Amino acid sequence: MTDRIVVPARFQGPDGTGNGGYVAGLLAKQSVGLSEVTLRLPPPLDRPLDVRRGEAGVDLYDGATLVAQAVATEVDLQPPSRIDLGEASQATAAYAGLAAHPFPRCFVCGPERADGLRIFPGHLPNRSAVAAPWVPAAEFAGADGVVREEFVSAALDCAGGWSLDLNPGRPMVLGRYAVRIDEPVPASEPLIVVGWPLAVDGRKLFAATALLSADGETLAVARATWITIR
Predict the structure, then answer these.
(1) Could you tell me if 31 and 74 are in contact, meaning their C-beta atoms sit under 8 angstroms apart?
(2) In the chain, what are the domain boundaries?
(3) Is the pLDDT of residue 94 over 50?
(4) Cα–Cα distance between 105 and 101 in angstroms, integer?
(5) Which of the four CATH numbers 3.40.50.1000, 3.40.50.720, 3.10.129.10, 3.30.390.10 does domain 85-228 have?
């Protein structure tokens, strides 16, 4: 079976390419069960991409070029110690991307995007984690008021990268990504996005993120591999 999806230009990450978390969320919606998405190339914007289903998973093609692959996986993660909205709000004031940002027009964390998610994760004092408050706009939800999967995936994307960024402004891109949504994510309510580092292996960096309700309930978690750009 072959379907098509289009990544609108609004949902870019680095200039001219799709935000990795958003694109991974779109592809995951085409899969059965929980999947891990590997981004093989920067996802192009504003043109139809072919979704091809096979025994191993779901692939995304731009013509004959493989852009991304989704395969079945599991995500066994729990967020770090409790973080409240006050701490997240204080942390976002120290968001490193306000001073130096490699992709300032990123839909998720770009300070130049008034129409973006505007999730600005800053480091929490005395913790190896970053956090930010987020109130999802109603436009990102369905008729039931629940935030759509691709926007939950996008919201969980960039905080992991910022938790790894010991040199603010160093360019990194998402390479591999898996999201587990545990509870419906409500629009128009205050939430907390938290990210924390897992490991480093040369140019590959590993991080986790979580989306929490205002009272600390875990709504979703994600595992990511980031690749530093030479």
Answers:
(1) no
(2) 2-72, 85-228
(3) yes
(4) 9
(5) 3.10.129.10
Supply the DSSP string of 152-183, one letter for each residue: HHHHTTHHHHHHH-SSTT--EEEEEEEEEE-S
Residue 161 scores a pLDDT above 60:
yes
Amino acid at 97: G
Does residue 169 surpass a pLDDT of 80?
Answer: no
Structure tokens at 109: 């964390």
**Residue 20: alpha-carbon gap to chain centroid:** 7
* Closest to 173 measured CA to CA, from 17, 66, 47: 17
CATH-assigned architecture of domain 2-72: Roll (3.10)
Give per-residue pLDDT as tens, 36-83: 999 999 999 999 999 999 888 999 999 999 999 999 999 998 887 789
The residues pairing with 212 across neighbouring beta strands, listed in sequence order, are 192, 218
pLDDT recorded at residue 1: 47
β-partners of residue 3 are 51
Strands of the sheet containing 58-62, edge to edge, are 2-5, 49-53, 58-62, 65-72, 35-39, 172-181, 218-228, 204-213, 191-201, 130-134, 122-123
This prediction has a pTM of 0.95
